[in-house]
Amino acid sequence: RLVYQWPDREDLWAQYAELRRDGMRTGVGVAAATEFFRDRQTIMEAGARVGWEARHNPDELSALHHAYNLRIDRGDAAFQAEYQNEPVKPTLTAAGLDREELAKRSIPLHRGIMPNGHTTLTAGIDIQEKLLFWTVASWGGGYSGHLLAYGTHPEQPSENFTASSAKRTLADLHPGGFEATLTAGLTTLVDLLLGREWPREDGTTARIEQLVVDANWGQSTQTVREFCRRHASSAMILPSHGRGVGPTARPIHDGKKKPGERLGPGWKIGTVSGQRGLLFDANHWKSFLAARLNTTVGDPGAITYHQGEHHQLLDHLTSEQPIAVTARGRTVDEWKLLPGRENHFLDCAVLATVAASAAGITAVGAEMSPERQRRRVEVPKPGATRKTIATKRGKW
Q1: What is the DSSP string of 311-343?
Q2: What are residue 316's phi and psi, to 5 degrees?
Q3: Cα separation of 70 and 91, whole Å?
Q4: Which helix H or strand E contains 354, and what residues bound it?
Q5: How many CA atoms lie within 13 A of 232 on its CB side?
Q6: How confident is the model at residue 392 (pLDDT cuts 50, 70, 90)?
Q7: What is the pTM of this model?
C-alpha cells in the first residue's frame, strides 16, 4: 500500500482538495493548494503512516502529499486499485432515475403554486459562465417535496439550448467584466426570487426561507461568496461547496462540532475559507434526491413538479449515473456525469434539497426538526439584517 494509515485531519485535506481542483479547473495551477499544505504540514500529516517516505515527486513535499494528489486526481476507485492494492467493487445501483418514470410525477398544480401542507420554501442557483440556472422547491412532512418553478436567468426563448449555446446571456443583459456581469445577474435573480410571495393552493402565501448558491466553480467562487456576504438578505443566502465523499473519506458531518457550526446529514454550515458557508456531500444528497424522485407520488417523502412538459428538466435529472463503490467496509453511491450531458437543473434541485435540511425539514415524518420548532419565527422578508433576526430569535 501507498498509505497504511490516513491522517487525523481529513477536514484540512478536504480544503486542500478543493484548492487543488479549483486551480486545475481554472488553469491557474496548484500553487495555492501546495502553500496551504506547506503552512499546515505538521498538523495535516499527524496520525498518518505511509509505506515509503521518499515516494513523491520533486514538486511535492512528502509521500502523503503525493498520495493525496493521486487520490484527488484519479478518484477513490482508481486510487484504491492502483496504489492501495484494495480494489473497490463497483456495481450499478438501483438509485438511478428513469426518464419515463420521472415524466409521470407532474401533479395538477400551475407553475409557482405550493401544495397545501407544505411549510417551507427553498431555492438553489447553479452558476454557469453565460447563464444562471435556478430551482424553487417547497417541502412538507416526511420530506415530501415539490419543484414548483425552475428556469434560467436570462430566460431563453425555448428549451432547446445548452449552457454554452444560450441565445440570451448574462453579458447581454448586464454588460461589463465577468465579476460585474455575474454580480448584476445574481442580484437581479435573487431579488426576483426572494422579493415575491409564492402562493399556496389555499390562497395563503410563503416566502423563500433558505437560498443556496453554488460557489464551487473556481472562476466565480470569490464573486459568489462576496455577493452572498454583501446582499441585503445575506441572512437567508448561503454560498455552497459540494464535494463527492467517497467510501474512504470521513463523512462531512462526522467529528466534533466547532463553536458556531451547524451539522446535518451530509452537510455542515460553518466557516469555509474564512466566510460562513455550506459544505455538503454531493454524492449523499444526489442519492437522497433520487430516492425521493423514486418514491411513489402520494406517499410521504415523494417529490413532484408542476403540471406541463419538462423535457429539459428530465434530461438534467437523468444526466448522471450512480455507481455503488465499496472500500474499507463502507459503500457509497458515486455519481458520474454521462458523456455529452448537462446536469445544471439536477444541481439546482440538490441545492434546494440540502437547503431544506438546513432549514429544519426532516425525513422522519415530522414537518420540522425539534430545533426548528423551537426557533421558528416569521420568515424574514428580503432586506432583513442579522441584527433584526437576532432580535426576534433571541440570538443569531
Answers
A1: HHHHHHHTSEEEEEEEETTEEEEEEEEPTT---
A2: -75, -40
A3: 23
A4: helix 344-358
A5: 11
A6: very low
A7: 0.72
